[in-house]
Amino acid sequence: MWRFSSSWEVQALIIYLHHTHLRRPFFNDRQRWNATVAQVACSTVVRGGPIYEALTHNISVHTPHHIDTRIPFCRLKEAYADLKAAGFGADIVEYRLSWSTVHEVFKTCKLLDFDTQTWYRFSDLDRILAASKSAAG
Fold first, then answer.
1. Residues 40, 22 contacting (CB under 8 angstroms)
2. pLDDT tens digit sequence for 29-52
3. H or E stretch including 53?
4. DSSP-based three-state secondary structure for 41
């Protein structure tokens, strides 16, 4: 019998979307990293409709989970509102779940240049390596 997806595939997709986005920072320099940034800016809030959020127990309101894993699912939205009220709203990547956004994340988020914080596709790799070689001499 055909099925849309198994539960582990859905979980993998949700986990990937919680931790991967074009605007999400990555760090290779310890001086630029700190615990607050790591907890607030390095996960995403993927908003869906009420049915989606109920079925996923609000885990897509994911950033508060990174702040304190003891926050129960039923309090994630409240904790998120508290984070925004405390001035962290600009640091949080939040977007509405849509197939176009999921497609853009999958299409773009392949290779990251840590120095420029730029995402590249695998198809860009030859061009990037050629430019790097010519710049080196």
1. no
2. 788 788 887 888 888 999 998 998
3. helix 50-55
4. coil
Q: Give the residue extent of every domain in the chain.
A: 7-107
* Least confident residue range of 64-68, 102-106, 129-133: 129-133
The residue among 60 and 27 whose pLDDT is bigger is 60
51/125 Cα distance (integer angstroms): 40
Residue 5: how many other CB atoms lie within 10 Å: 10
pTM, two decimals, is 0.78
Per the listing, tokens 């070689």 go with 133
Of the candidates 84, 70, 94, the one whose C-alpha atom is nearest the C-alpha of residue 18 is 94
Spatial distance between the Cα atoms of 8 and 12, rounded to a whole number of angstroms? 6
